[in-house]
Design a protein that fits this description.
single chain; alpha+beta; 434 Repressor (Amino-terminal Domain); four-stranded mixed β-sheet
Length: about 220
């Protein structure tokens, strides 16, 4: 087959269709360079691509592979190829699926929301860690004694704790209740004394002298 006439036929059909080499290459799924080589007679399409060319230009394989005769028929008007502005093309009839993209609002909301959740998680973790460390580091048992409580004028078993933080009874309730349970189950605690006094000090000199505590809590044995 005459490569020059084949290339000339491709060029004539393309121009009659009113498309550029790039547009034809896009429809066929090849490079612009491949189309250029066909039209310059430097290369020939394979069998599968030849079928696509026939579909694109609305001609038969016999007409494609007899380029000189087909060119003559086109020039004298005895062959009707694809009109200049077709209603459909190969790319339009069988379009490639477009890649799925996230909607703009999904991108704008998802990333900030993820950042907020991470920050909240870190803050909550730090609060828990600090709370646990405060309970261990800020409060320690300093001394115990049996005495007559001047406020109740009755014997009490007093436990003095040195507390370096700001005392909050409600937040320390579990800790205080634990002390009470230990007192109730301690066989070494005086069993004839029914009152436990937990005294909190924030000054070591004051607790050493059993001076007035900044806070005291009382518990009683049940009958």
């Amino acid at each position: 087959m005459d490569n020059a006439n084949f290339g000339k036929l491709i060029s004539i059909l393309r121009n009659r269709k009113g498309i550029t080499q790039r547009k034809l290459a896009d429809e066929l799924g090849v490079t612009t360079s491949a189309v250029s080589k066909w039209e310059n007679g430097k290369n020939m399409p394979d069998a599968a691509m030849s079928t696509k060319l026939c579909t694109c230009f609305n001609i038969t394989l016999d007409e494609l592979f007899n380029p000189a005769e087909t060119i003559e028929r086109l020039q004298n008007g005895t062959l009707e190829a694809t009109p200049k502005t077709p209603e459909t093309t190969i790319s339009e009839a069988d379009p490639e699926p477009e890649p799925i993209q996230k909607k703009w609002y999904q991108k704008k909301i998802l990333i900030p929301l993820l950042g907020i959740l991470i920050i909240l998680g870190v803050v909550i973790a730090l609060i828990i860690i600090n709370k646990d460390s405060d309970e261990v580091q800020n409060c320690s048992l300093y001394s115990v004694r049996t005495c007559i409580d001047k406020d109740r004028n009755a014997p009490v078993y007093e436990m003095a704790y040195l507390y370096s933080g700001a005392f909050d009874y409600y937040s320390e309730t579990p800790f205080v209740q634990t002390i009470c349970k230990c007192w109730l189950s301690d066989p070494n605690a005086p069993q004839d004394i029914d009152t436990l006094k937990i005294s909190f000090y924030n000054d070591e000199a004051a607790v050493a002298e059993w001076q007035e505590p900044f806070s005291s809590i009382y518990f009683y044995r049940e009958d």
